[in-house]
Amino acid sequence: MPARKDPDASVSVPCFYGAELRFKREAAGLTLEQLAEGSFRGISFLSQIERGERRMPMDLALHVDKRLETDGFFERRCEDAAKARQVGHAWFYADVPDMEKQAQTLEEWAPNVVPGILQTGAYFRGLIRWGDPELPPEEAEERIRARLARAELWKREDRPTYWGIVRESVIQSTPLPPEVMAEQVEHILDVIRSTRSILQVVPETIPWHPLNHGMAKIMTFADAPPMVYTEGDFTGQIVDFPAHVQQYRRRYDLLRAVALSPEASLALLEEAVRTYRDAAQQGD
Known about the structure:
This protein is of the alpha/beta class. The chain has helices at about 15-25, 30-35, 45-50, 60-70, 75-85, 95-100, 120-130, 135-150, 170, 180-195, 240-260, 260-284, and strands at about 105-110, 160-165, 200, 215-220, 225-230, 235-240. Helix 1 runs antiparallel to helix 5.
């Protein structure tokens, strides 16, 4: 049996919150299963809160305070932990960056934009300018900082194993300036090669394929069940029901089969860099 992974309370407010929850639960002599009983929440969900990976919803905070007799501590601090996690991220995405850090494997399907942890600041700034032009500049810069902070994951020796799939139009069809896209595609190539990760491209000659209608991020963990994150314009969802996760797993595997090989995909990216560099020089 692997050694228990204790949360580091110094990492963040959510980690402090989770460490305190584990301390109070164990002091009360309760197992995760006993504490979760009657809460309408699963054991794995509660375990992820203790590790600082998920935010605690208010209904669970109320339940925990009642079971542990903590005089409203978790209810009072619930909103603080949620705010700390959300800085620079949409409310529905707030849990995902910490999950990425804890994951053993990350597999992404990105049909519309470059995956977030592969984006440059200039690329993301362009996405904001085109997709949310009314966003105040200071909030836009906060989002850019939060987005780039996720990329610190690539510097870790214990980083997750990464496999990404993107649609060809993500690389080839964009309103961003050629120099921005040249830098972005070069960055993808550098990250994929330096980390021995895998990237595949679904060519435009295959218009219909599995997972045709939206992005998906599949995450597996050493001590928790796998999860999937999906997202739309104004909402996101963490999928952890095993049967649904398995469906995403199967569709992702089928998507791999219709994509270009990793070697052909990187060759396509190299050609895109040359094309964007030439276009940038002609525009000077």
